[in-house]
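Figure-free illustration: sequence to structure, shown twice.
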Amino acid sequence: MGNLVWHEYARYVTLTASVYTVWAGFFGLIYRKFFWDFVNGTIRSPGGLQPAPQDAIFISVIVKAPIVPIISMILGVAIIALEYPAPFFKGTSIHRSFILRIVGLILQAFFAVLFYQFELRHCPALLQKPPLPSPHFDPPSVHLAPDHLKGVDPFLPPYNPQLYVGELKDEEEGIEYVILLNKYSVVPNHFLMVTKEYQSQATPLLPADLVQAYFILLAARKQHQNYFMIYNCGEQSGASQPHKHLQFIPIEDEEGPPIERAARAAHIQAEWKPFSLPNLPFAHHIRRLSIPPSASRDEAESVLATAFLELLDLAISTVRHIEDHPVGMPSYNVVLTPGHLFVSRGGARQPGGARGGQGRGADADLEGRGVRQCARPAD
């Protein structure tokens, strides 16, 4: 009787461990990280933990191509089928084999401990960030640095030579920008595009801002580096500096950030129409960018500016129908990738009554595939 109890206990432990391995492998596909990178890695400030060169093989089979998480999931499913057991295993020699169980569990444990099931990022640089009062966002019409910013605005000269990268100028509009490394970055090579003359972070992106940001992303891609741009506009957006700045964040995944992958997977009937993803809990609108690689500056500006104005109009119109949303100047977040433009309204949940722009029948078809194409909600 005692042996039976212990055998059943071992079976339940094995099933629990295997279910966890399948779950961990699934998350390992999304959050790809080699677990043991801290053994020989180097902690940089800023930048966090950098894997050692000898870990390159593990980075290849875990981060670049998630082979190890997939193997872990396959082993987990196989052991669950063996222990449950699945009807096609029950009573067979495979089901009765303890050697097979031992080998399978050892392999499962070996592969599972190679990758992160959760990721913790150590950011010592943030400890050095001085406490600042909440930024005061001046009216959009103000283009001169307010008196209370003089001497404390980190985006005005003189620039820190260790952070200064260079300057850009939009020849069409004459707007100048400064490229600075983010002093308090949480990932390596996180940099900023800042307006050389003071502009408020409460102002929307200008066509020149969008064009220069887009061409930076394309230039990085030509160098086999993947970046995406974030712009936090207004008091409710999470911006910590009132001087207008666009953030460029590198990402290891060649397919882009998770929201880019979700947008790319969406099946839409009209490439030129904004759409949203109903499974995301916050109010947002997305526009697919169909810009040819050989497009001129003016062609790129036309697509980007039109897309941004459409999305911003949709975002503001959507929020007008949310009764408990804070009043005041618009706050929103913008994400730009080479393939999509995203605008989400700060602090707003996805409204349940957003309607599609192609009639109810088209909406039902699109929503069934996890995407909703949008028109501005009726007043």
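We now fold a second protein in the same way, so the two outputs can be compared directly.
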Amino acid sequence: MKGLFKSKPRTPVDIVRQTRDLLIYADQSSASLSDSKREEKMAELAKNIRELKSILYGNSESEPVSEACAQLTQEFFRENTLRLLIFCLSQLNLEARKDATQVVANLQRQQVNSRLIASDYLEKNTDLLDTLIAGYENTDMALHYGVMLRECIRHQTVARYVLESPNVKKFFDYIQLPYFDISADAAATFKELLTRHKSTVAEFLSKNYDWVSSAVTYV
């Protein structure tokens, strides 16, 4: 009889929705719950993020399934799951942060009906890019945010926004940070900004060549 009541496997959409609910919980961080209850919720969140990663990348037993990836991607960007994940990243343990970073990176490449919907989402939520850039000021989060930012820059609209933003000048400060791994990561991101999208970069340099060249010389 026990087999008759076996729970159905969760779909990619189910996992994204449950992840979103857990991220909302983590973001609100209810003080009314005990520490043990919070640990339980955060462990469940880490497990869900690991499952999202497994769907997108596959595992030792199976390759990614395009339909499952598309369902996951569409649900992920249907609401503010990306926003929640970015803002809650610091509350995750190290392994969950790594998994979350890989999930966000992979989602930038996923197409739904021949569209990169991550690009559409970021174009409407550019403040998240400001958050990722400012992440270089947090020594614990800098490398995770740096990976996410470089993957987001794959989208030309995102790269254009960053180049036209006042925040672009911060990279020269980040490149000079005393932490080698963070300064090197910031340099890698800035190099990506100046090399990936030729037409956007050419337009940027035509307007900003003087201060860019002087800043590079100073660095």
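Summary for the second example: Residues 9-125 form a domain with the Leucine-rich Repeat Variant fold (CATH 1.25.10.10).
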